Amino acid sequence: MFWGHLKLMGEVMAMFPGTVHPQYAVTTMCHMFDLPGAFYLDLWPLGPEFLVIVDPDIALHTTVIKNHPKHGDIPMHVDPIVGKDNIVSINGPKWKYLHNMLAPAFAVSRIRGMVGMIGDEVMQFRATLKKFAESGEIFHMEHTASCLTFDVIGTAVFGPGSSLGAQINGSSPSLQNFMDIMTYNAVQRDSKNPWTKFTARQKRLTATSELNATLSTLIRQRYNELERDNVDVSQKRKLTIMDLVLRDRLEETRKTGGGTEAGLNPEFMDVALTQIKTMLLAGTGTTNDTITFTYMLLSKHPEVVQKLREEHTRVFAPTIEETHEMLHNPDHHNKINDLTYTEHVVKETLRFFPIGSSGRSEDENGYFDFKGERYVTKGHFLLIVSHAMQLNPKLFPNAGTWDPDRFARNESPRHAWRPFERGPRACLGQTLAMDELKIILLLTVRDFDFHCSGLTPNKTPRVPWTDMDLTFGDRAFQEFVFEARPRDGMPMTVSKVGKP
C-alpha cells in the first residue's frame, strides 16, 4: 500500500481524546486484530517503518540477549529537551563512558542512604497537602508532586542542603524552565502552523538558555569547591551525581595543573549540562507521573488504601512522626523492602501507566532469528511497547482490572512488566524511583484521602480493552508531551482522614 498503515493509525488514534500518547494506538491494534508478538507498522512518509515488539520474549532478545542500539531517531525527540550526546539516546563507547560515570550514584546502598532525605522532602509535601485539605481548594496534583520529585532529584544531583526549593516556593525557575521546554517542544512537534512552530521553538530556546545559565553557575560553584578544598573524588560511591560528572575532568586538570577555565571549557560544559539535565528530568518525570496516577486510582479503591495503611503501621510505626524518625535511622532503612503490598500498588499503577516505549535500531545483521521466525530489521525502527504487553490478557490475566495483588500471585512472566525497560539500557534510576514512591505513600496515605475533581466519566468505553474511562473519563488516557503524562494536570482535592 502506498500510504502504508497511516489511515489505520489515524482511525485508531481518533478513538481517543486529543494529544493521547501513541502507545494507546498500538495496544488497541493488538486487541482489535489479535496481532502477533512482533509486527510491521508502516507510517511512511509521516514516520518510520516500525517493527513493533509486544512479546516479552522477543523484547528480552532485543534488549538483553542482543541489546540492539538505540535508534538514530531518538536524539530528535530527546536532544531538544536535554542536549546532544545524552545517556538516553547515545550509543557505543560514549554511552559506556557515561554509564560508568553515573551508575555509582544509583547503587542500592547509595539509594538507601538517601531514605532520610526523601522522608524530609515528603514531610514538606505533607505540609502542602495539609494546606490544601484545610482550604478545600482544587489543585493540580501533577504540578504539586513534580515540586516534590524535583527537589528530591535536585538533592541527589547537587548534594545535601542543596534543595532546589520547588516545594517551599510552589515551583522553581529551573522546574518551570523544564516544563516550558517540554511544553513548547510538543507544540513545535505537533503544530501544523509555521508561525506557531517558530514561536514555540523560540520560547523553548529561551527557556533552555535560562536553565543552562542557572545550572552552569551551580556546576562552576561546585567545581571551584572541589578544587579549592582539594576534595578526594576517588571513592565514587560517596559522590553526588554532580561530583561524578566533574570527577574525571577534575582529576585530569589536577594532573596537568590546569585551572578552572581549562577544566570547564565549553566542550566539557556542554557534556556536564546535558547529563545533569538528563538526570533532573528523568528523576522528576516517572516518579511524578506515577504517584499522580496512584493517587487517582486510590481515590476509587478504599480497600487498597486500607491494606496500605495496615502495612505501613505494621512494618514501621503507628504514627507518621515515628515513621519519619525511623527513616533517619540506617538500622530501619531496609524496612523499605518489607513494604511488599506498597510495591505491588506502585507496580500495578506502572503496568497501566508506563511513561513510554523503547526505540531500538537494527543490528549489524539487519535481521534476527527467534524461535524459528526471521524478523527483518534493516531500515526499521524497533519499537518495544511495554503498554501493549502489560495490558495483554494473555500475559496478565484480567488485564483491564487494577489489582495490586496480582504481583503476589506470580501469574505473569517477570519480564513482561517493563516500565523501566530491561537489560543494560534499563533506567539507571529505577531503584531510586521505586523507593521514593514507596516512601511518598508511606508518609501520606494514612493521613489523607484523595479525590479527583471535575471527572466526566464516559458513558461507554472508548475501546474494548479497558473500561477505566467509565470511572475517570478521559483522564484514564495519558497525553503525549515529552513522556506519557497525566491529562489536565490531574485536578484533585485532598482531605484529612476522618474528615469529609
From TrEMBL:
- Determine if Transmembrane helix is one of this entry's keywords: no
- Family matches, as InterPro entries: Cyt_P450, Cyt_P450_E_grp-I, Cyt_P450_sf, Cytochrome_P450_Monoox
The molecular function GO annotations come to: heme binding; iron ion binding; monooxygenase activity; oxidoreductase activity, acting on paired donors, with incorporation or reduction of molecular oxygen
Q: Which residues does the record give as heme binding sites?
A: 427
Which UniProt key words apply to this protein?
A: Heme, Iron, Metal-binding, Monooxygenase, Oxidoreductase
From the UniProt record, list the coiled-coil ranges: none
Keyword Transcription regulation in record: no
Q: Give cofactor(s), names only.
A: heme
Concerning its family, UniProt says:
Belongs to the cytochrome P450 family.
What protein name applies here? Cytochrome P450
Name the species this protein comes from. Dendryphion nanum
